[in-house]
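Subject: Protein record for review, amino acid sequence with backbone structure tokens
Why sent: The fold of this protein is of interest and is recorded here as tokens.
Enclosed: The protein record, placed directly beneath this head.
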Amino acid sequence: MAFGRSDMDLSLPVTLSHSLKHEIIMEEQKHHIVEYLTNIKIWIALAVLTILTVWVSEFDLAMLTVTVALTIATVKALLVLAYFMHLKFDSKILIIMVIVTMIIFLSMIIFTFFDYLYRR
């Protein structure tokens, strides 16, 4: 851009301008590389938790059956969110948004359980 002369400015198409802004934003973000061993450990943990879910379902835990299954599913979801969806490496505001969403979701699940428990 020339000093004081806006008519000398090079105009870019909107799409090109948008893609340049996107590249600049992407360059500002920190890149992270997750080691293969970490991915393998998380995959093994998810497989073990899945086997644990199936194993626990064989027992008659009365009212605790669904609670135990949902607890294991929550741990699995947290592992997927943290490592495979890279929340562990993202900004704090995104993590806070996911936590608030999970709290709202869990409150709906808890309200549903209370409704089911106290039906006549």
User: Anything to note?
Assistant: Residues 23 and 39 are 28 Å apart (CA to CA).
